[in-house]
Write a structure and sequence with these properties.
The protein is mainly alpha-helical. It has helices at 7-11, 16-29, 35-52, 67-85, 92-110, 142-145, and strands at residues 2-4, 57-58, 64-66, 124-125.
Length: 148
């Protein structure tokens, strides 16, 4: 099932210390909540990876991701927010989750990790554009030219 990644998804995946650190960084910088911008960037990157995978289809709604991608997208968003606003809270577990999300994206691009098709609309299908039309057998080989 494809759905939008919500702020609730992110809030359920961060600790209270991480949330406080991000909010403290926001207050110090007098900025709006960067969740919206970061979410949009990460969703676009994930959809790009899914699009590039052979045979994958995208949901027409540009703000949705498949359920299997939500976990990795949340890890990526959390990592970006923590590196920007509360880098002292980054630990090895968070770095590992970010690396796992990057590895998952690479597998999606290569077609190793298959993505479920969207439920409703046909979406965008990736079709391989290079097709081998014919092969020419080599006429001049060592065996054929032996003795010349």
């Amino acid at each position: 099932m494809w759905r939008q990644l919500t702020e609730t998804d992110l809030r359920s995946a961060i600790t209270s210390a991480e949330d406080a650190g991000i909010r403290q960084g926001l207050l110090a910088g007098d900025q709006e909540d960067p969740f919206v911008t970061t979410r949009r960037q990460v969703v676009a990157a994930f959809r790009g990876a899914i699009r590039s995978g052979p045979g994958n289809r995208l949901d027409p709604d540009e703000e949705t991701l498949p359920d299997v991608a939500i976990y990795h997208a949340v890890a990526k968003i959390r990592f970006r927010l923590l590196t920007r606003f509360a880098s002292e809270l980054l630990d090895d577990d968070r770095r590992t989750e970010n690396k796992e999300a990057e590895a998952w994206l690479r597998e999606v691009r290569r077609g190793i990790e298959k993505i479920e098709a969207p439920d409703e609309a046909p979406g965008v299908t990736v079709i391989q554009t290079i097709t081998l039309l014919s092969t020419n057998e080599r006429q001049a080989t060592r065996e054929n030219l032996r003795g010349l």
